[in-house]
Amino acid sequence: MNKIVILTGAGLSAESGLGTFRDEGGLWAQHRIEDVATPEGFARDPELVVNFYNARRSQAHEATPNAAHHALARLQKDYDGEVILVTQNVDGLHEKAGGSAIHMHGELASALCGACDHRWPAPLEMAPGDPCPSCGAPAARPDIVWFGEVPYHMEDIAAHLFDCTIFAAIGTSGQVYPAAGFVQEALMNGAETVELNLKSTDISGAFAQHHIGPASEIVPAWVESLLT
Ligand code: APR
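A: This is the predicted complex of the input protein with adenosine-5-diphosphoribose.
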């Protein structure tokens, strides 16, 4: 049985108007990671962090999937085999396009209790100290994996990398591990490797095939080639 594992990054949602992190003027040029994407930053200034994610949540709420999201959802529906989407993105655009994805860095649409690990659908605007609907502790936080925390679903992802026939990375700079190391795991099991990006990346050398261009153009073309 053919299995394609596809890792997606911020570049996939760029043409839906959601900023990437490391491109010119990206999110990490506007905010310090240590201030808005670490547990220490959240402990130091919960208001700043909650508002950073409130702004991203409402942007993601308004955003619509682009042709690349739709092409990947089509691949999941029509491919003669399994298609596993593993996304580093915290927006819900794969799902809005009718796809399903493993969110290894969490989701803006989800809230997490820092005291009891309960999860619930996040309100558009969260506030520091919101009570957990399960244990009541004033410990609600964005359900986002911050730097220094362990990404979600790593066992499932490792199992998929172990037996995939094709591994593709779309719109990711390959600078953040463990995601940036997935291609090596796929290569060890003999998978075909494909990188789709606007330009070459730190991990381009690990891929056998490359498609260069905007995701909204190269992803539908790549999906078409897989389905015909
Ligand atoms: N089409 C295809 N690729 C694009 C496009 C586009 N229209 N626009 C940008 N890109 C590519 C860039 O060339 C770059 O390689 O998308 C990538 C974006 O890289 P990053 O901003 O680093 O985003 P990502 O790789 O997803 O970051 C990984 O880092 O900060 C953490 O948790 C955060 O999930 C994020 C992780």
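The radius of gyration is 18 Å. The domain at 1-17+66-105+151-228 is CATH 3.40.50.1220 (Rossmann fold).
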